[in-house]
Amino acid sequence: MVKKFVIISLILLMFGSCKFFSDFFNNQDQIKNTYNLNVVWKLQTERYFSNRNYLKIDNYLYFDESDEDYNDVADYTFCISKVDLDTGRYVWKTNRINACMTGWDSVKKIQDYIFVLSYRGKIYVYSDIDGSLVTTVFLGNDDEEKKIFTNSESSVTYNEFLIWDVFSSNGIYKDDGIVKLNINEIDYTKESQVLIPEYIWRRNEEDKQCAANFMIEKDGILYFETCARDDLWSFIYAVDLEKNEILWRKYTNGMWGTGQNCLYILDNRLYSIENRIGCYDISKEGCSVFEIEENNGIYLGGHSTVGGITYSGGYFYYTTSSSPGGNIVGTPRELIKNIFCIRPSDFKIVWCDLDYKTGSLYSKVVVENNKAFVFGEDRIRVYNAATGKLLGINDEVGTWVFENATTYNGNVIFFNTDRKTKTSVLTAIKA
Q1: Counting Cβ atoms within 10 Å, is residue 423 exposed (0-12), middle (13-18) or buried (19+)?
Q2: How far is residue 188 from each of residues 95, 122, 138, 323, measured CA to CA in Å?
Q3: pTM higher than 0.90, yes or no?
Q4: CA dist 291 → 135, 155, 369 (Å)
Q5: Beta-sheet strand order (sheet of 423-430)
Q6: Which pLDDT tens digit goes with each residue over 64-112?
Q7: From CA 254, how far away is CA 261, in angstroms rounded?
Q8: What whole-number distance in Å separates Cα of residue 367 and Cα of residue 387?
């Protein structure tokens, strides 16, 4: 009798658990409407899985078409492409090079040249007119010196300067820092040359901080957040790019400094969205306005916000790495969210949601025509940007959680990936 009771109880528990997990993961899918894509144009590309940012300037999109499925860095190849967003056609495509690009943010444009940072201690310089290779800049006289200046996660430009972070991959932390290269020093008539960038900030051995997240520039001032390699704490710095001078630094209260693409400047406020939310007054040497973790029990951060922050209509939109699995560690599922629309002044939630199927999100929210487009793994969720009402889901596209979509002329631009052919179609849809 006892055995029968135990068996029946286990069966009921099993079915109850199945019902629970079904509700937990599929509730949103059960109420979804299909969002039909109004395709404007398509372009077949060789780009496969890539977590690198696109570079959009005016009506042009620059991006890498890389071998992400490789066994060794020595096997890696890439080319850079320029596409006209009005026509959806290639303007040019560079020859493929046997080299490995650095970090998330490797492609930049200054004047009439495209600069591509490489792990092999080189910067490839292409013509923006026809995509031809103009020159190759070696960042050092030998392999050891090149290693110092090429392990980068992010880069920015300011006037004639190309600026990027460097951090040690071999334990020599004294070389960690941020460097800049004056492109006017490049001889564009030479096939190759050696140039040594200069440090504008260098790791302080006492603080043991490195620059791990994306930098941003405003009015000739570089802002960035550091992190301690061994402990979770950080500083926010402001550096004058002309003088290579630290204007101020602010110790944060509980920020990790490990976020990707998580900084945004609005008026005189610098926002950092990573493990928690920080807001700092850059007109008052980074004075803290607020640092918060949650709002009404909902965790606002998510370790990193890789896709970045979108500002539209007076609100911030972003995604986080929070996932439905948070319920397992004790967080009530109604408090788990990874899609946010936030009021910048005090970070009150305007609306929020959770993509049950995808889980962690690292994509950038695209806002166009009062619609918020959220890219997850193999799906797009579309919301009313003002109210957060889910307008529909399209799960017939092959996006990645790292999708860094953009907009142009009323269209949403993204890569639709085919995992079988390991290629993707650059796609423009009407918002």
Answers
A1: middle
A2: 18, 15, 13, 49
A3: no
A4: 46, 26, 32
A5: 39-45, 423-430, 411-418, 406-408
A6: 998 665 556 666 888 999 999 999 999 999 999 888 787 778 899 999 9
A7: 18
A8: 13
